[in-house]
Protein: SDR family oxidoreductase
Amino acid sequence: MKKVALVTGASRGIGRATALLLTQQGYSIGVNYLQDKAAAEQVVALIHEQGGKAHALQANIAVEAEVVAMFAELDTTLGPIDALVNNAGILFQQTSIEHLTAERINSVFATNVTGCFLCCREAVKRMALRHGGQGGAIVNVSSAAARLGAPGEYIDYAASKGAVDTLTTGLALEVAAQGIRVNGVRPGLIYTDMHASGGEPGRVDRVKALLPMQRGGQPEEIAQIIAWLLSDAASYVTGSFIDAAGGR
Ligand code: NDP
Structure:
């Protein structure tokens, strides 16, 4: 039987690349998105063209009731979840701490941290052996910013990714005996739309010369890591992090 994966933020960028790669590996895909319905439906259509199964799931992961409803819809459309990719994340305009407001910080944390927690919770309820589940695997998409701090750009975002890393460590230990592996990926500078949200669409090309590898990364390069961490090839790996930041 096909395995079922839910990828949050799968309409664009790293999530989209991950959804397409997991399809090639035989997963049915829940394609979560926030507002870009056309982009999400295009991902679903591409998956169908490849002979795969997919279902678009609109939900704001920062809103508990929407996460609960999304998982219920996944259950009825594609079946029990085997793999969760907590990929959806946001950042705002580059700025220094003088311009950070509580509203902005709370908004970043609501999506990047609370959303990740809520999706982990719903997945564990379904995967854990103690709940009659079959086990599973979770990959949390963090950022090199968790290590580097993103000074002068978005330390709120960096701190949210630090929290994601701590969630990954704690949850991996909490559910290791429940047949669930939890790991993290920390991408560096990847060519996606996200940098436009920070006010600098060309950020990767501006900064890439400073990287040891002197280039930005492609979403597909991150998707490969996520797919490996979800796979049986990584069956003895939990609570681990893979940095994919061109050597930084
Ligand atoms: P993009 O900005 O390209 O895409 C973001 C995706 O997340 C979209 O699918 C968007 O949906 C979805 N999304 C945003 N907010 C929510 C929400 N509240 N609920 C549900 N879905 C939501 O992002 P990237 O592909 O660049 O980033 C993916 C992950 O990788 C993020 O966690 C990011 O922090 C991390 N990362 C990215 C790096 C980079 O250089 N790009 C570097 C390090 C980490 P919609 O299309 O509907 O708006």
Remarks:
- The chain has one domain: 3-244.
- Strands lie at 3-7, 27-33, 54-58, 83-86, 136-141, 180-187, 241-244.
- The chain has a mean pLDDT of 98.
